[in-house]
User: What shape does this take?
Amino acid sequence: MGNISSVSELKNAIEFLKGEQAVKGRAVREHFYVVYDSFKPVNLLAGSLNDIARSPLLVENIVGLGMGLLTGTMTKSLFIGASGSKIKRVLGTVMQYGITNFVANHTGLLKAVGESLIKNFAGSRATKIEMP
Assistant: This one.
């Protein structure tokens, strides 16, 4: 806006600024309601759960941890057997802890080794079947 030299220009400028203020006020109110709605506990919880569900890293970690616990528990039960001495139980617990941590922390490596073994096994079976 330039210099105002008459009363009519002043009235026009005031009306223009009132309109501009009304538009910006509506935009601020709309933005306030959007922010207010996003901070409701239900929406915060829903947003957090969506973020968790969409995180592929979390899913991989959960699968790795589950595989680790399963293999560790199986190893302990196989090592101890039906009735084990106290030393066997302690060693079984130590083995369970070690194997669980190894499997949980190296899921990518174990997945690659497993895929390789499956391909080799399936490939050797396929060649044996095709030969006769």
Observations:
- The helical segments are 7-38, 41-54, 56-80, 86-105, 107-130.
